[in-house]
Design goal:
Elements: E1 6-9, H1 13-24, E2 29-32, E3 48-50, E4 59-60, H2 61-75, E5 78-80, E6 84-89, E7 93-98, E8 101-105, E9 109-112, E10 116-118, E11 134-136, H3 137-146, E12 154-158, H4 162-173, E13 177-182, H5 192-202, E14 206-207, E15 210-216, E16 223-228, E17 234-238, E18 241-244, E19 248-250, H6 253-257, E20 282-284, H7 295-304, H8 306-315, E21 322-329, E22 331-335, E23 338-340, E24 350-355, E25 363-368, E26 371-377, E27 388-391, E28 405-409
Parallel strand pairs: 1-2, 1-9, 2-5, 9-20, 11-18, 12-13, 12-18, 13-14, 21-28
Antiparallel strand pairs: 3-4, 6-7, 7-8, 10-19, 15-16, 16-17, 21-23, 22-24, 24-27, 25-26, 25-28
Helix pairs in contact: 1-2, 1-7, 3-4
The structure holds flavin-adenine dinucleotide (FAD).
């Protein structure tokens, strides 16, 4: 039986950053991680691009992960690895299963920081044969960077998100050529310069407006059949490797097991601006609540949650009143999904959302009880497959007694 002040489940950027800050403020923190090494996803992303907003450095993933783990250890955070939380509820605590046995942890506060993953082939309902040679980007990078395995020689990437270009770099390292990138969207989800430079540099076509209609190959992948969504024409691309990239789902099993209120669209636990879930003493941070943003944004969530956790540890106040934020227009979900007075400003002063349609200069309108509280055209586009940021200043005039708030993006 263990009784830390705070149990943090998941030792990625968000969990490690929360642990470091809480220990610095004198709290006893246990971080548990199911993998053998702490650090989360960045451990197997060998390219640069991590740590910009939190550490003010441009680091590669493994270096970033190592720095966060070292900072946590220096501060005095207890990190258990190869320790998986296999059962959890807010009232009964967490069961950890590890090679050292099973442990029951009954903390005063729990932070869920379990991250997100890409939907694998089966969850994307891709029809056809079931050969080997199909990976998510996460699985690919795990095989290549952590287990030093080889993949095939001709790859197709499904999705054109930032992470899809990360897969191109990983495959290049092991001599696997990307022959095409395929996305159902009318334009690549990644930022335009990345998509353009990636396609030109590595000389593969980005086939927008296409879907995969068949996987071909008995034991090993031999090709995929794709369909042009407007002409309905089909053709086969020969390949021995298929990467199903992006299309994120939060690692939400514990949140669901513990009966937390969930957002039906993002499949994440619903939090307020202070990253409190609807269950007293339970908090959720990082990509678990916004699948997915960058590692530094997840790490800053870890710092942001500290105020709410400390308030809870100090006085265990009753759950404060909040109002629901309802997405409208092309906005399909928004996180935090609730607004409250105690921490009205979310992490980094931004709400994060997901959109189902493209808008070059989207107009965001905030309404409460039918009244328009704010409306503004934003200078950045709303693009499916990429997080959309909404300044929290647009919600400045929301009141706790005014009822649910609608945030429309058009
Ligand atoms: C291919 C790829 C490339 C990327 N490139 C970049 C980039 O260039 N720059 C950037 O900033 N970001 C990048 N990202 C995003 C970045 O990795 C994530 O935003 C970041 O890792 C999220 O941190 P997190 O703490 O929320 O979750 P994670 O890093 O996913 O950590 C969650 C941890 O929780 C653990 N866990 C889950 N369930 C349990 C359980 N039941 N018990 C114990 N432990 C559990 C997991 O094992 C994991 O280690 C990339 C992501 C991918 C997949």
């Amino acid at each position: 039986m263990l009784t830390p002040d705070v149990l943090i489940i998941g030792a990625g950027p968000s969990g490690l950053s929360a642990g470091t800050e809480l220990v610095k403020r004198g709290h006893r923190v246990l971080v548990v991680e199911r993998e053998a090494v702490a650090g989360g996803i960045p451990r197997h992303c060998a390219h640069k691009g991590f740590g910009i907003r939190d550490l003010h450095r441009v680091l590669d993933g493994p270096t970033y992960a190592t720095r966060l783990v070292a900072a946590a250890q220096r501060a005095g955070v207890t990190i258990w690895t190869t320790a998986m939380v296999t059962d959890w509820s807010a009232s009964a605590g967490a069961t950890i299963t590890s090679p050292h046995g099973r442990f029951l942890v009954t903390p005063r506060a729990t932070i869920l920081a379990t991250g997100a993953r890409e939907r694998p082939r089966a969850a994307r309902l891709l029809p056809g044969d079931r050969p080997s040679g199909i990976y998510t980007t996460g699985q690919l990078q795990n095989s290549v960077h952590l287990h030093h395995q080889r993949v095939g020689s001709r790859a197709v990437i499904l999705g054109a998100e930032l992470v899809s270009f990360s897969a191109v770099l990983t495959m290049r390292e092991v001599g696997c050529r990307t022959v095409a990138m395929v996305t159902e969207h009318p334009r690549p989800e990644a930022y335009a310069p990345v998509a353009k430079a990636g396609g030109l540099l590595f000389r593969f076509p980005v086939l927008v407006g296409h879907r995969v209609t068949r996987i071909i190959g008995r034991a090993q992948l031999e090709g995929i059949e794709i369909e042009n969504l407007s002409t309905k024409q089909r053709r086969v691309i020969e390949c021995d490797t298929l990467i199903t990239s992006g299309d994120w789902v939060p690692d939400h099993e514990l949140a669901r097991l513990g009966g937390l209120a969930m957002d039906g669209r993002s499949k994440s636990p619903i939090v307020d601006g202070g990253l409190r879930t609807g269950s007293p003493g339970v908090f959720a941070i990082g990509n678990l609540v916004h699948p997915v943003d960058t590692g530094d944004v997840a790490a800053l969530d870890g710092r942001h949650v500290v105020a709410s956790v400390e308030q809870w540890l100090a006085s265990m106040p009753p759950m404060p009143s909040t109002v629901q934020l309802i997405p409208a227009g092309v906005l399909t979900w928004v996180a935090p999904g609730r607004w409250g007075e105690f921490v009205a400003r979310p992490s980094r002063g931004r709400y994060l959302g997901w959109v189902g349609g493209f808008a070059r200069f989207p107009r965001v309108t905030v309404r409460q009880a039918g009244d328009v509280l704010a409306t503004r055209r934003l200078p950045w586009p709303a693009v499916p497959g990429r997080l959309f940021r909404i300044p929290s200043s647009l919600l400045r005039d929301v009141t706790i007694s005014g009822g649910d708030v609608t945030i429309e993006v058009k």
